[in-house]
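Technical annex, item 7. During the second reporting period the consortium partners agreed on a shared format for inverse folding records so that results from different sites could be compared directly. Each record opens with the tokenized structure and is followed by the designed sequence. A conforming record, contributed by the partner at site C, is shown below for reference.
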């Protein structure tokens, strides 16, 4: 009899593990309900919103700070407004977009790596010195004021890449 119970329990565990996204009820009483993914944010830029939604699904994030990596390269993003909710972000890749303002990233105190190659940046804000940013890849931003990179280097940010017109200075 013990062997039958063990087999039945094992079978139910295997069956239910395949139903992790479904609500399970017995006699109209919920016995299992999956944890809802994080949705308490507002991002107006449709391209950024789609990228964040995909990252949340991929990582099964149920809280904002669980999202550690965000790869939104070549996504058509123009604005980063709303990204500051994701305070756990450590690595953000935003290469090949249309971004001109990095201000929404200043609240991301865990941000260690930022890749913003080939965007429309004119400034690499010194506020990143206060965030703990460690590495920055920023080449391909033709309008970038090179003096702003010197400030970041002085506070310990490693430049993985810089615009060609800044490398000569």
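Designed sequence (site C submission):
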């Amino acid at each position: 009899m013990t062997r039958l119970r063990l087999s039945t329990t094992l079978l139910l565990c295997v069956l239910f593990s395949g139903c992790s996204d479904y609500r399970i009820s017995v006699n109209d009483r919920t016995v299992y309900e999956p944890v809802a993914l994080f949705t308490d944010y507002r991002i107006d830029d449709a391209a950024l919103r789609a990228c964040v939604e995909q990252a949340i699904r991929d990582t099964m994030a149920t809280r904002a700070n669980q999202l550690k990596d965000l790869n939104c390269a070549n996504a058509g993003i123009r604005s980063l407004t709303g990204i500051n909710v994701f305070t756990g972000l450590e690595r953000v890749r935003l290469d090949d977009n249309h971004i001109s303002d990095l201000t929404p990233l200043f609240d991301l105190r865990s941000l260690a790596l930022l890749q913003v190659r080939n965007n429309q940046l004119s400034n690499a804000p010194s506020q990143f010195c206060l965030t703990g940013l460690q590495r920055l890849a920023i080449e391909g931003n033709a309008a970038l004021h090179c003096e702003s990179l010197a400030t970041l280097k002085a506070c310990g940010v490693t430049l993985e890449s810089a615009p060609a017109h800044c490398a000569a200075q």
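The longest strand covers residues 29-32. The longest helix spans residues 2-17. All partners now use this format for quarterly exchanges.
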